[in-house]
Design a protein that fits this description.
The chain has 389 residues and is of the alpha+beta class. It is built from five helices and 22 strands. It is elongated. The two termini are 87 Å apart.
């Protein structure tokens, strides 16, 4: 009886509604909690059924669609290549021909013959110091030397003819030689009153003034610089002994003037600096345009490792698995444009300039994924785009 009454109630309800299903908006407007819950349950059931149907459709599409959706990756074909590793240290530009010229004679600086920036040659006169009567003294001594020479030559002729005494001959010889030494010393002293360029270069600075009293070894007269013979020195950690030698390839960067040079080590110090545990190397640098100046800071790159036939890959494509191993993805090609991704555990060596050498796990001829690798998984079907360098 109760069942009959329940069915009758449902029938009456349907008749009252005109036999039409209420919309979600109508149910909400009705404000009947029971109807709202019933509507929600109905929609949830429909949602589950739709998901199942969509999944069935997707599976069927995958079976029937010949143009499958594949992840796009960029690849390169591995080749044996030359790999060079460099260590970088800081160096300084120097020159041995950068000096302050001091006088070797004390007196008044009477004349300066050059100006700043002037190019001079070795032996060229730069300045003159008053000799304080030394030239007159030399002239007098040269006259005395001429007389002593004449006397000595006459006594020598007489001695050879067995005429005259041996004492007279020896006295004249001794006097002549003494006068020779005296004149030579005066000439040497007088030559020091003329300041000459010790090498070809440029007068970078005129320090003294005409009329100034200068002293031997103390006063500064000129700064003379030769920028044609420049070199870079750098301190290299002692751990690289045996790897860095005379003739080692070097790259030098002078960022302040935007210049780069290739060269080789021409000198390796035999001394280890106990303060920083390093040894010094020296590299010559060309300076044809004169842009390089002493004391510039240089970045010195020293080639400490070279592999002639190396497998090299971009450093940023390497990944790490749960075991801590390095992983790189390759592609097994199905065609020129499609393939399947494969994971490769690799053993790596040194890295430089965003490249790393692979010692084990990859070989020449394999196709490596260089872009899109981080979103790739083992066995994934991919669409291939060749990397254009």
């Amino acid at each position: 009886m109760k069942k009959f009454l329940f069915l009758s109630f449902i029938s009456l309800s349907l008749i009252a509604c005109g036999g039409e299903e209420k919309s979600t908006e109508d149910v909400i407007e009705g404000g009947n909690l029971t109807e709202i819950r019933a509507k929600k349950s109905e929609l949830t059931t429909q949602q589950s059924e739709l998901k199942e149907q969509i999944e069935l459709l997707n599976q069927e599409i995958k079976k029937l669609d010949t143009n499958k959706s594949r992840s796009l990756v960029t690849v390169e074909t591995l080749q044996d290549t030359l790999f060079k590793h460099y260590i970088e240290v800081q160096g300084d530009v120097e020159t041995d021909q950068n000096i302050i010229i001091h006088p070797e004679f004390s007196g008044i600086l009477t004349s300066i013959y050059v100006k700043e920036g002037e190019r001079v040659t070795k032996g060229q006169r730069l300045a003159k110091i008053d000799d304080g009567g030394l030239s007159s003294q030399l002239a007098q001594s040269e006259s005395q030397l001429a007389l002593a020479k004449t006397t000595y030559e006459r006594q020598e002729r007489l001695w050879n003819q067995n005429i005259g005494s041996e004492i007279q001959y020896l006295e004249s010889k001794t006097n002549f030689e003494a006068m020779q030494n005296s004149v030579n010393q005066l000439r040497t002293q007088l030559s020091k009153t003329v300041i000459k360029a010790p090498f070809t270069g440029t007068i970078d600075q005129v320090i003294a003034d005409e009329g100034q009293v200068v002293s031997t070894g103390q006063s500064q007269l000129f700064r003379l610089v030769n920028l044609t013979e420049m070199y870079v020195t750098a301190e290299v950690p002692e751990t690289y002994l045996g790897k860095i030698n005379k003739g080692t390839e070097v790259l030098i960067e002078l960022s302040s003037i935007g210049k780069e040079f290739e060269g080789s080590i021409e000198q390796v110090s035999d001394f280890i600096n106990p303060n920083n545990r390093s040894f010094q190397v020296r590299v010559s640098v060309p300076n044809e345009q004169g842009l390089i100046k002493p004391n510039l800071i240089a970045t010195v790159k020293l080639n400490d490792y070279t592999s002639e036939n190396a497998i090299v890959i971009p450093l940023n494509i390497l990944q790490e698995n749960a075991e801590g191993n390095s992983v790189a993805f390759t592609v097994k090609k199905e065609s020129d444009t499609t393939g399947t991704a494969a994971r490769n555990i690799v053993k790596t060596g040194l890295s430089y300039d965003n490249k790393i050498e692979v010692l084990e796990g990859l070989k020449a001829g394999q196709t490596i994924i260089v872009e899109g690798a981080r979103s790739t998984r083992e066995g994934q079907e991919v669409k291939i785009s060749e990397n254009v360098k």
